[in-house]
Task: structure prediction
Amino acid sequence: MAILKLENVSLSLNNKPILDSISVDFWEGYIHAIVGPNGAGKSTLSYVIMGLSNYRTISGTLYFKNKPINELSVYQRARLGISLAWQEPARFEGLTVYQYLKASKKDNGLSIEEAMDVIGLPAQEYLPRACDKTLSGGERKRIELASLLVMQPEVVLLDEPDSGIDVEALERIFDAMAILKQRGSTIITITHSMAVLQKAEHAFLMCHGNIIDKGGIDKISGYFENKCIPCDHKNIPISGETR
Amino acid sequence: MDDKRAIAQTLYKTMGLTDAALNDPDIAHLVINSNMVVASHLIEGLVVEPAETQNGVRVTMKVLAGHTIQKPVHLCFGMLPEDGLQEIIMDVTIEEHASVSILAHCTFPNAKNIIHKMEAVITIKEGASYSYLERHVHAASGFITVLPHAIVTVEKNATFKTDFELLRGKAGIIDINYETTCHEYSHLEMNAKVNGVQDDVITIRETGHLNGEGAVGVLTTRIAVRDTAQATVYNTLTAHAAYARGHVDCKEIIQDRAIAKAIPVVEVNHPKAHVTHEAAIGSVDDKQLQTLMARGLSEDEAVDLIIQGLLS
Result:
């Protein structure tokens, strides 16, 4: 069953089409990956689903549990059960990691200490720290995952959770993804990494604002094996099995 | 309990504090309501001579050479009446190699039209350390004019740190004017955090002159203004000697029809000195805002948390 459904969703920014009539179902409880070249519209798609400012004026319809959510603001969608972790997380001057996680905390999420344990950052050391530029990029990304673990949204959007992450931290991020899924979240992850793609159960290939292929990981992983050919639309895979 | 003691306790209560400090024999304190000293307690090494004047109090304070006052000294300047003028004149000397930290509370819980002025001359002698945290608690409405002015001399190897905080209640008119001269290898740190609402007018003038070799100074200002409040920050840091180092840092968040200005002046007159500055003024950072909203906070809740962080 689709927990999230997009029907003919298009978006233009500064008169430039970014998403072109995308229709897609995200099945409940799955880890979905979205892959594709830079500029394909992958991050934009996640912003549209989250309803971020500048990404609200779309044509088409977004459904969450069969109800349209186009008119809902970011926080209304978050309260329904959708949340997003950015590729480059925000840094908060003056707020501690604890304050940030406490603001994210919902009843059905992990405790703050449990979440810190999952991401492998000692709570005693990190919770009092400022959630700002004094944290490394990798630490900040792990804390972003912790904020989702304490929230436990029904739909988790992860924009390149692996970027700027070392091998050990990546394992922690995979642990966090596994726990989110195990506790019922549907995960939609954008990635340029084969390792992340392999954690997914279903994948979409995007190019030029379209979803041009979808299916199992074996099928879509061809994209990472240089099976794209030059054409009017760059990076169209030679597998040819477009929707 | 006598009347003065009751007033002192009431002033503490308005700040959300217990009066435990007033009962601790190891904590020196001086509590002033309008022009009346309502409580005081001194400890060894600290000399405080308050004299009531027509509109306030003249306070001479000295920390004797070589003494370290272990626990922060509590100063409370308050006015329980709705109207009036309170003038505090302070003459502070921290003698050689002495050290003290002051926790000053200024509370005007019933203010409708109050003027609170402070004129201070502060001398921190060689190797001494003086830290002054001034925390204001104002009413949510009414009108207060706050005019803290100070001339500070920081002698060789001495340290001066001041923090001004006005985070609760309506600021009114705030005009902070601190001018500090720093000698060899001295350290200066001046921080101001103010939350302005309604028609508040906030002016901060913090000046540091790094005159001595190796002197270090940092001026940091954090302001949030909303409604029609206005804030102007004039931070000046000058460096006139070798290895003097300084940094000016001003961040202001505006909302609604508020106006904020930052006018940093950085002047370096020695080729081996170095001063930097950064200033940022604008609305709440969009990514911070949307991140918190993506965690389920409403826009107002998210803005409040971001501002709380900025002013923390």
Q: What stands out?
A: Chain B has a mean pLDDT of 93. The longest strand of chain B covers residues 83-94.
